[in-house]
């Protein structure tokens, strides 16, 4: 039971996929010892011996969910696998574990979408804000950086763009906020950068 408590605490600490990989690699041998039918534990979850897979599957069928689309075969398989993996954890903590991982999945989806729409210059400016004192810069400093560093690199692209237009999207998606005469990175902005680093998303996207 102490081992299961440790797994639960590790699950609580999961931030992004890199942490999942680490847990899978660190504890695969111990999990196998505790659960003989377990063939492999890794970054994609738990894999059971095919010959004994029926023993690992939930005893009850997946419930119908009125109002939701019919499950595809792959969705049904993932749901079944999740039911199996949840059996490894304390029943009193399963809802919390699911909520935590749902929150991570929602943020990851949001960050993937936002990252695809950002300019490289916006990402680099976001990192500069994160590294600055108090995570903020004056509006004058930010505007000057845009005019003197960003626009000269891609003059045709930014020819008709103003600083306000360039920064508006960062504000709209909640990555930065304007406070009086300062522009500051938000916690969401910092988390997006942590996510990008964890999964290897590049800042060098077009246009830079």
Describe the structure.
This protein is mainly alpha-helical and 208 residues long. The protein folds into two domains: 2-113, no CATH class; 118-199, Arc Repressor Mutant, subunit A (Orthogonal Bundle), CATH 1.10.10. Helices cover 59% and strands 10% of the residues. A hairpin with a 2-residue loop joins strand 4 and strand 5. 14% of the residues are buried. Residues 1-8, 10-15, 18-36 and 52-59 have low confidence and may be disordered.
Key features of this structure:
2 domains, single chain, three-stranded antiparallel beta sheet, disordered N terminus, mainly alpha
Summarize the structure.
This protein has 9 helices and 5 strands; from the N terminus they run ααββααααβααββα.
Q: Over all CA atoms, what is the radius of gyration?
A: 23 Å
Structural class: mainly alpha
- Describe the oligomeric state of these chains in a short phrase: single chain
Sheet-strand content, in percent, reads: 5-15%
- The helical percent reads 55-70%
Query: Any low-confidence stretches, pLDDT <50, length ≥5?
Result: 1-8, 10-15, 18-36, 52-59
Main sheet strand line-up: 3-5-4
Beta strand count: 5
- Give the SSE string: HHEEHHHHEHHEEH
Counted by DSSP, the helix tally is 9
Question: Which descriptor suits the 3D outline?
Answer: elongated
End-to-end separation in angstroms reads 52 Å
């Amino acid at each position: 039971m102490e081992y299961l408590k440790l797994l639960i605490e590790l699950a609580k600490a999961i931030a992004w996929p890199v942490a999942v990989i680490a847990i899978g690699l660190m504890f695969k041998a111990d999990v196998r010892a505790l659960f003989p039918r377990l063939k492999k534990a890794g970054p994609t979850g738990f894999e059971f011996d095919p010959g004994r897979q029926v023993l690992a599957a939930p005893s009850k069928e997946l419930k119908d969910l009125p109002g939701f689309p019919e499950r595809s075969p792959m969705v049904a398989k993932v749901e079944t696998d999740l039911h199996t993996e949840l059996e490894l954890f304390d029943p009193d903590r399963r809802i919390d574990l699911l909520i935590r991982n749902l929150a991570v999945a929602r943020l990851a989806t949001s960050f993937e979408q936002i990252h695809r729409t950002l300019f490289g210059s916006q990402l680099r400016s976001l990192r500069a804000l994160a590294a600055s004192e108090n995570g903020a810069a004056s509006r004058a400093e930010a505007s000057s950086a845009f005019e003197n560093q960003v626009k000269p690199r891609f003059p045709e692209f930014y020819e008709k763009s103003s600083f306000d237009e360039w920064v508006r999207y960062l504000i709209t998606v909640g990555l930065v906020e304007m406070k009086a005469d300062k522009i500051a990175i938000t916690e969401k902005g910092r988390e997006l950068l942590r996510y990008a680093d964890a999964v290897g998303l590049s800042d060098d996207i077009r246009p830079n």
